[in-house]
Amino acid sequence: MSRPGSRRHHQKFCETEGWELVRDARGRSVGHHITYELPLADGRILRTRVSRPANADTYGPRLWSEILGSSQLAVTEDEFWSCVDDGIKPIRPGQEAPVPAEALPADLVYALITKLRVPEGEVAAMTLQQAMDLMNEYWSKPQP
């Protein structure tokens, strides 16, 4: 079920993702809307406008769909709420997904799954130290 977005949510999304506030030639905020731009790696510049004041007034379904769509924020509703609620920025074209700090090297994952037959779910839950300990134990034994 769709959750209605508000002006405040819209502004928080832009601020969280790092959109730039558009200013006029004299450095003032533009117009009666709060206007943001986001340059993308593929050369496009997204632009969106939040009506003033950025309060709890919600958008109607049609306008909300247009704001989320490719002409403004260019995100899914899930990406929008992940950013607003959890601070998880959407992956944009030309960006790579962030690698978790404790990500296991691919060759280590492959060895655990193919040589030790550790289920993928267990490998995914392992720390780097746990994975290395298992492989060191395997390598320290004589191989058939």
Would you mind describing this structure in some detail?
By secondary structure, the chain is α+β, with helices and mostly antiparallel strands. The protein folds into 2 domains: 7-86, no CATH class; 106-140, no CATH class. Helix content is 40%, strand content 11%. The protein is built from 6 helices and 3 strands, in the order αβββααααα. The protein has helices spanning 7-17, 61-68, 77-86, 106-114, 120-125, 128-140, and strands at residues 20-21, 33-39, 45-51. It has a 3-stranded antiparallel beta sheet, covered by helices on one side. β2 and β3 form a beta hairpin. α1 (7-17) crosses α3 (77-86) and α4 (106-114) crosses α6. The longest helix is centred in the last third of the chain and has 13 residues, at 128-140.
